Amino acid sequence: MEKELVNTVLEKEFNELSSNERVALNDYCNSEEEFEQLKMVFLSVESLKKSETVQPRVETKNSLDDVFAQKHGHKPRAIWYNSALVVLYPTEKAFVKRPLVQIAAAALLLLLAYPLINSTKIQDQSETQLAEVKIEKENVKPSTTKTSNTESESTVVEPAIEPIVQTRSVEMETVYEDVMVAAAEMSVEEYRSEPEAVYAAVPVAAERPDGIYTGSSSVTFSQPASAQPQVFDLLTTTF
Amino acid sequence: MKIFRAQHNTFTDEELMQAISKGDKRAFDELYNRYAAALLRYFMRMLWKDREKSEDFVHDLFAKIVNKPEYFDPTRSFKTWVYSVANNMCKNEYKKAEVRKGMSNGLDNHYALSDTSVNVMNEVQDSFFQEAFVKNLAELDDKHKEAFSLRHIEGLSIKEIAEVLEINEGTVKSRLFYATKYLAESLKEFNPIENR
Question: Which of A179, A180, B24, B154 could link A188 by a cystine bridge, Cβ 3.0 to 4.6 Å?
């Protein structure tokens, strides 16, 4: 049934119907009784529509919001710069009247003006520096004789300094007389029995201040691990 | 924020669906505001006034919109599509109810639901006449009930109902005629002319 017919049924009485309307309603009602029954149906529908005020629960919407967040990966967040942008760059204003444009223009002017301001400062500084240098030059002339004297004095003192190697060799003999150093797997005797092998290239004690000395000959001194493969193996197995 | 909301208000349902598929939350909120209440009432009418089930169905329907927006054909009307989905959900529920009825020990599963529906309606309206109408509408068989609801309560056109129910327009008219006649006949006892 068309909407117009429903409205006709709702708005009119049976005796008010035109002949066209009666023809249109012929399938549904032929008598006043049937017309009234039909009217009641549509009145019931109207009142049902008005009385149906049921709304979905908040939980349903919240659950759907979660589904949406899961599907699209994130919950919508307010972007902080959006509000700042609205204030600084309002699109409804003319381009030159936008605060962000004005700030940018001012910054550009400052940037361009900076070298000019700075150059005058540099000029002032260079002038003052030149003046200082002149004053210094004037003051320097009488002091040159003094420095030459100190230089001659220092050359006299130099021979009094003893070489480090010499003093160490004398002192070490007394301090490390009984000290014996050996590798973990080798005894001091082994070292002593084969002095040629271990110290094939032993330099004079005075030339190796890092050496450890017993009596007149050195026992050991620092040398690369490749010179003693036994110790090298030990180190590698330990670590 | 207000500007964006105003824009969504002016969107058509189909435009909102496109926005939803791109992850626009406000579009989803707008669509929900437009259809959730109407769909809940539709489900309640079709599912024996079962509020819980109707809420679940509304949730499932909108979850489908969120998860599978590609199911919607943009060339079609959203209103027609959403009611056809709702109608199919109801049909599936009827089938399940039939299976449950067959497996039950002779007790009618809808008895309790129908009973609560009367209580729900009592809360909403105290008119006995309206109760009778609702009762008779609920008693209509499903295909006539859905045609009548879609036409006179949801306000769909004959063509839209034909699309929703996937039947031709002649069949829609026939079902509407039958449903209207049945309801008119069932409300005979309240006819003021007959009771004179």
Answer: A180
